[in-house]
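Protein 1 of 2
SEQ + STRUCT:
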Amino acid sequence: MRFSALLLFALLLFSFGVQGQDAPRVARQLPAVRTVAVPKIDGVPDEALWKAAQPATNFVEWRPTAGKPEDNTNRTEIYLLYDNTSVYIGGYCYEKSKDSVSTELVGRDVVGVNDFVGVIFDTYNDKINGFGFYVTPLGEQFDAKYSNTAGEDGSWNGVWDSESKLMEGGWSFEMRIPYSALRFSSAANQTWGLNITRRRNKSGQQYMWSPVDQKINNFMSQEGSWVGIDKIKAPVRLSLSPYFSAYANHYPANAAGSKNVTASVNGGMDVKYGISDAFTLDMTLVPDFGQVQSDNQVLNLSPFEVKYNENRPFFTEGTELFSKGNLFYSRRIGGQPLHYYDVEGRLGSGERIVKNPQEAKLLNATKISGRTKGGLGIGFFNAITKPMRATIEDDAKHSRTVETSPLTNYNIMVLDQTLKNNSSVSFINTNVLRSGSDYDANVSAAILDINNKKNRFNWYGKFAASHLTNVNGKSSTGYSHNVSFNKTGGNWLFTLQQEVADAKYDINDMGILFNNNYMDHYFWTAYRWLKPKSFYNRIQVNYNATLSRRFQPGDHQIFYTNVNANIQFKNLWWAGVFVGRNASGNDFYEARTAGRFYRTPPSWRYNVWVESNNAKKYYVSAGTFMAFPEMFSGKLVEANLEQRYRFNDKFSLTHTVMGGPSKNEAGFYKLNGDEIIFSRRNRLTWENILRAKYNFNNKSGITFRARHYWSKVEPQQLYQLQADGHLKERAANGTAIQYQNINFFNIDAIYTLQFAPGSFINVVWKNAIYSSNDAVNFKYFRNLGRTIDAPQNNNLSIKVLYYLDYLDLKKGRSRKQNNL
């Protein structure tokens, strides 16, 4: 601790000594021009009205060669106009020839290998938050929200118009962004932060209108200005997205009382309403998430749960405020019922479980979020799940139900005040209330995120407390903090961090925390060469070190350290290398028994990877990771290989394979009374993913994804865990060695048609297979064949989502009245 304090003091002295060395930066300005005429959005800004706007020109390279002016042959000219309803953007992206433009039809919100142009508006001019709107040469859209804390949120979707046109000397585009897709103040005269970016993928270059220094962490703080926006007013922002869906499901249960084929019809609605010029309400009523991508399920041998990605649109879109402090894991909402595993213990003689839902049904969810003129961001989230019940039946066909999850309310409240120098102070509270006798949970956190004037040094602190009520008749309060000092700008970067959680800190009712009771110290530093030289565009070398102890009583857990580096070459290939060392430690979780621990062996770890230029028709990424635990002369090898071939702009195939063998791995096997049994085991895991994509145009396409995951575990010898954490060889003593052979196979095939702005028809076929046995002697393809022959769950669905904007409905009604 004394060394850490001295190092922190030295770094502070250094930071104060270098803060004044940079020359002042002058941000660009572009005058806002109001238009009376409305441009036709056809992709070619050749109408006379565009000439009234001063063009944004003289773009500057952002990467790889920061600060280099763009070549006149490949120049960029962008025009911005506005009126009472919308912002209009049009421009030309010149190239030597059409062949120099990188294009691919990939669908909405996917970049792929495309060139693109994007406009980023900071409508409150706070240098922290923004909206980005991007268009590709083939007219596909991508949009995102930005914040200096959450980064880029590409899941956010606005409804706006755009068109693009390829031409011999490059490509052109036009956008119309209605004010309903933005949030801004009601001031009579406004200045918005503005930057415009262009990517030329075949050359690996990206340009900015307002220059961005790669050595400064936050690009939002380096925006230019769009000045003189006069007398615009936020419109009534009300949209409805009703949906209708129908499902047909087939599973060969072939059991009395169970149907092999089932069907369902669903309906619901999403609502978006602008409460004020700054705040928006989002609500989903009786949502349907049956068409989201299948989870990447795995065989989990660890003592911790698997964290799955969130694929449900309502929980991924516009959640940057609710993500502050990492207290929100949205998969908790509508996740596994609280007492799902308790049903087995409540069976009587001759009873069996007929139905036990694996997910709680979401009734509705609501988000309110926005930011005041003074920079105060406010977020409110609420969701309700219905009570869930398992059905139990006896031999006489008498049935009863058991509640596995009560009516539950999930709530988040966030206050986020922006400060000068792109800094902020935040307060977050999450709350879970359950009806009946089940416990409730409350977590609160205060966050300080402070940057210096040059945005090169950062002080961060999070202080959190959890409180559970009625846990076996008692309450429990826990505490956690995370404090760090960071150098975030320049060639040399570092982080010095301490994170603490006591034994009672628990956020797992609405967040995710694998374990508590720890005190971790972490140091990371990096040096980067950002100016391209003879054979490379950039190089970065990193060093990491982590020391973890239990908070109470303070005994050692682990120390690990590594050095790694990555480089981008002139031909746009990437490569990297990693060397790490894990010292011997104490694992207090693998034993699955409180008060016991396993003495982990030291190990060396290595990783090498390479990635080709992704703008080429053929793309490959490959790497290998190896670890060598010293116990039992263990060896772990994990390889990955991804290959993609683009046949043309419409069709591409991608194959990914990853996995490998683990030899003489030590791990928990089972509990035998008070005895804790470990095994020395061999494990082989392979995961194959095949993706195919065919887009008919920029409004419709088909995606196909098939994933096969296979993992087999073969225990070689059993061991008894001793009180000192070491393993002692154990005779079988009647304990049979059990092998595991696990397979997950999924297909997600989706046809999507956008038939109007914000309106979609999706037709989805999903196939799911799960098999578990002890057949570890089969090779890969025979094992795959047996998996395909196992019972399959097939699901076919159609969903129609229609976007209705109040302003469009109002205009249509006005036109109808005028025609009478």
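Protein 2 of 2
SEQ + STRUCT:
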Amino acid sequence: MKKSALVYTTIFSMFLFASCSVSKFIPEKKYLLDEVKIETDKKELKPALFNNYIRQNQNAKWFNIVKIPMYIYSASGRDSTKAINKFFRKIGDAPVIYDEATAIKTKDEMQKAARNFGYMGATVNMEKKVNKNKLKLTYKIISGHPYYIRQIAYDIKDLKIGELISGSQEQSLIKEGMLFDVNVLNSERDRINKLLQDNGYYKFTKDFIVYLADTTRNINQIDLTMLLLPYQKRKEDAPTDHSQYKVNSVNFVADDNIPRIDESTLSSYDSIQYKGRNIYFKENCYLRPKVMNNANRIKEDGLFNDQDVRNTYYSLGRLNALKYSNIRFLENDSLPNSLDAYILMARANNKSLSFELEGTNSAGDIGAAASVAFMHKNLFRGSESFMIKLRGAYEAITGLKGGYASDNYTEYGIESNLNFPEFMFPFLSSSFKNKIRATSELGIKFSSQIRPEFSRTSASASWSYRWSRLRNIHRFDLIDINYIYMPKISDEFRDYLNNMTGSNSLLKYSYEDQLIVKMGYNYTFNSLGTSVNKNPTKDSYTIRFSFEEAGNLLYAASKLANVAPKNNESFVLANIPFAQYVKADVDYTKNFVIDPRNSLVFHIGGGIAVPYGNSKMLPFEKRYFSGGANSVRGWTVRSLGPGAFQGSTDGKLDFLNYTGDIKLDVNLEYRTHLFWKFNGAAFVDAGNIWNMKENSDQPGGVFKINKFYNQIAVAYGLGIRMDLDYLILRFDGGMKAINPMRTGKEKYPITRPDFGRDFAFHFAVGYPF
């Protein structure tokens, strides 16, 4: 009891001290803005709709509970010149002092917003509650009666535009009987503006569209008229119909420093023609004419189409050789209502060299790795990106038993890829290639690992395609060949494998020569689009799906050729057994935004891989593992599962047995901004892996529909993220809550936590999901 009283007294004293510290920053006759709330009298008007109109909000709270950043700031002294006070003020948040004028502006903007939503008589009241030097502010929105659109009329004297608008009525956002929402009316103006600009109306803007609202005939009903204003360049000009423009020519300028576009300026440039289009450049043309021409979507002798302009910008943006691009249109003086397009392209710095040095720690073995990479973004003057990277690593191995000649681990490797900004595949039309907007990539990789126990060589080559559109990203691996070769296995290690495992064991299979020839497809959908903000302001979700298969073509060819299986077990290619399997993964993440500083993220992911035909077991590189920074964080990487498998005491190679054919992960994470560049998280993770078939080396690891839910591991923990803008450093600490690898009371360590036994620390880059 005495200890409990001491704890409570200490906590109370800390909060009392914090409150006193805040008070010194509150001027006399002023108030700390302690809380801001929004209340509405109708369910249709959700308070969240008005959050963006709040001009002054209360101090941020950690996990939406405690205003720690404000208390950190308040820990500073009054002398702002002292270094310690500067530090506290930099990482903390200054107490928000209530400002009456700002609150009134917020009230007025909320009232205007409510009326724009269709509640024309809406009013907003401010309710203030004062407690000593703290103030709680509530904005109460009284909506009144909503207004609806009774009928819609159009006053459009320009016959051509009238026909276009009339022909697109099915896409109209305004309907009779709908709420008189000004935001929807503005969206309809945007829609019509885009419609007309895609049909030749180069000089048209949405300001030429106005609405007339008549409320005199019916109570709470509006007769709406859309009015098209005539074209006037200046107020004193006579009004005329809007003109449609045609594109006369398309020209390319491979320079970003051109002051203006006219005949005298362009005459100082060198120029060539490609398929009737002029290309202007200084000194040399750093892009092939064909590449420029293929990136263009603007058509000559046709009506101006703003969608073609946007598509051209998108195509140019995919060219890594360009820093940026700009498209200008000039009216042709000799041809009325005609435009000449000039595509200006700024050259990027195409060559770069980077060097990386890193420290490694594998199960306590300390080492270092270094790599150097060269990048060329315009290798063949077609915006082809070429990368070559050399890497080397060294590690001192401890704890080896036996008479090994060396205790060192070395690794060296080289990898390279070449990316083409087009869909390179025979027999496809140019129109299809332009439509799909895919890039093609050739990848080659080689690495060699030299350990005291064995030497391992890996070589791979791949050809893949990648394309994206709006919120969808696709990747198709046409072919991916991986060859794993074991040129040397020491006698001591071979005896270890033979004494420890049977002929079909996972451990032994992982140290045999392997050939994997696979094909795969990956799909990602993000509701916010392909350019995802790391701090979204609205709810979003992401779906990922991947599928791959390996060995089917080789197996079919072996069958057709009537080739005899090696040792009556499996077919071989170049005397190497090839893997045959199918593998599918699906992943879903939902982000609930509570406010700009707090969000709740839910994630669920799973996968299954099935070996068959030429394979009795999945290659080790394709098997699932659980635990680690992106899985169930109460376990270190490759230390959980499969199922209720309890592991063994066979040393460092035991991680090979913590793999399976099926995986399930479920995560819930609350994320909050702490202070300065630091964010925090509280999480709960659940999941495990399982095998499809019984394996004597992994007892309890097989998936059974009536038992798997009792084998799901659960962990909880806290994390800190450091947001450096260009990357996020993540530190997570997880504790085991339910451990399926144990029985009895030890299965539920949440009731008797042991920090040394149940805690796992993780360092990673980026968010876990």
